[in-house]
Amino acid sequence: MIMKHALIVAMGKHREIGKDNDLLWRLPRDMKIFKETTLNHVVVMGRKNWESIPEKFRPLPQRKNIILTRNKDYKAKNAIIIHDFKDISKHLDENEKCFIIGGAEIYQLALKHDFVDEMYITQVDETFEADTFFPFVNWENWEEEDLLKYEKDDKNPYSFTVKKYTK
Ligand SMILES: NC(=O)c1ccc[n+]([C@@H]2O[C@H](COP(=O)([O-])OP(=O)(O)OC[C@H]3O[C@@H](n4cnc5c(N)ncnc54)[C@H](OP(=O)(O)O)[C@@H]3O)[C@@H](O)[C@H]2O)c1
């Protein structure tokens, strides 16, 4: 079986994903979905995304964490550091599934290298002021499947939908 590689992202109505190296919202229900989806798999992230995760929560537990940086001296506890996107596969065991978890620069690399054939996209039903955006995607050849529609509540201030796209 050929293992599919995936990407997971949450974005606002204008593809916004972050500001000041932080997320734009707190949506515990979506965080739960992120955790359930990526648990026991490999997560690949940019150095900035890694640093945006509070120290006590990183590496993301029960997942092999891979960080991409150009800095040859970069150190991170209990994570694998790579300097070339193409080196991801060197660190994947057979049947290990890999999730690209951002940020924007790493999503862009994954799309450019045609690395993923699955995308889990949370579409938050709101617009936000942001400085980081998910890249444009050529939607031809992607099939859309609805996974969840969530109405805002006390703990989750915005409604959102989760869709899976498969190539
Ligand atoms: N909403 C979401 O789902 C979501 C998900 C993830 C992140 N985010 C947000 O996105 C923002 C961070 O995204 P970002 O685009 O600024 O940064 P990023 O993609 O997390 O990291 C960028 C860094 O990755 C390294 N890098 C990039 N291309 C590389 C290459 N070709 N080879 C080696 N290393 C490379 C560089 O590290 P060095 O500078 O160390 O060389 C670069 O500075 C934050 O606001 C975060 O909260 C949102």
Superfamily at the CATH H level? Dihydrofolate Reductase, subunit A
- Measure the end-to-end span: 16 Å
Named CATH topology: Dihydrofolate Reductase, subunit A
Strand arrangement within the widest β-sheet reads: 5-4-3-6-1-7-10-9
Order of helices and strands: EEHEHEEEHEEEE
Structural class: alpha/beta
- In the predicted model, the low-confidence regions spanning at least 5 consecutive residues are none
**DSSP helix count?**
3
Named CATH architecture: 3-Layer(aba) Sandwich
Give the names of the bound compounds: NADP nicotinamide-adenine-dinucleotide phosphate
CATH class membership: Alpha Beta
Helix content: 10-25%
Domain DHFR: 4-167
Function: Key enzyme in folate metabolism. Catalyzes an essential reaction for de novo glycine and purine synthesis, and for DNA precursor synthesis.
Pfam family, one: DHFR_1
Family: Belongs to the dihydrofolate reductase family.
Question: Your description of this structure?
Answer:
The chain is of the alpha/beta class and 167 residues long. It has one domain: Dihydrofolate Reductase, subunit A, CATH 3.40.430.10. The chain has 3 helices and 10 strands, in the order ββαβαβββαββββ. The chain has an 8-stranded mixed β-sheet with strand order 5-4-3-6-1-7-10-9. A two-stranded antiparallel sheet has the order 2-8. α2 links the parallel β3 and β4. The protein is globular, with a radius of gyration of 15 Å. The two termini are 16 Å apart. 28% of the residues are buried. The model has no long low-confidence stretch (mean pLDDT 96). The protein binds NADP nicotinamide-adenine-dinucleotide phosphate.
